[in-house]
Amino acid sequence: MMATTPPEGTAHRGGGLPYRFLHPIIWCWVRVFYRYRVRGVRHVPVEGGALIASNHASYFDPIWIGAGVVHRAVAFMSTTSVGRVPVLGWLIRGFNGLTILRRTGFNKDAMVEFIRVLHEDGRLLLVFPEGTRTEDGTLGSAHRGISLLAREAGVPVVPAFIAGARASWPKGRLWPSPWGRIEVAFGPPIRFADAIPGPGEASDDAFARVLMERIAILEQVVEEPLSFREGLRRILGLKPADPDRMP
Question: What does pTM read for this prediction?
């Protein structure tokens, strides 16, 4: 069974120097200016390859997710063209970006690389099943690429929901709001085999449907969020104040 309660000393596993340096700063920034709250962090595996599948509403979504995973680094996808830009490409890779997507979208080469980083590197990879940012704040349907990745990689998929992201930086606005309220919730991991197809439903379609249902119900999660102090301790790799309790 994969461990889910972060032990002491696991912070920033898989993250580069810029990621390790900025994570505690970003944690303080989002808590102060965006009244950031995160719940269900215990559901994110401590180690081993895994996916986080989140709704997508703003350019800052990787920040909202990455800030809340206080016990390890989160990798995200970017395009190969961006990765070739001097300085910018280095920064993205330093912040755990994987510059392996073509502008045409998901492709066979990207799939092979995703599976490699999940299996060989044991990375935690953030994906957005909807494929693009929402126009009106509603949750869309998942592209079948997430089902293909979950099936071929065979790793757990952690559903996540971000509330307030569209209000802080909606699609079409040039600049984000300097303040707001962001809440993130993580749910129990699921695997491809957990999705039972309905009559006449393909396995890939069933997984995509179940995943989006799991993401949607997280909007209603009511539990105590991770405290500022405890989150910072976890990010810094310090001994938790209460080892037996992780929101």
Answer: 0.87
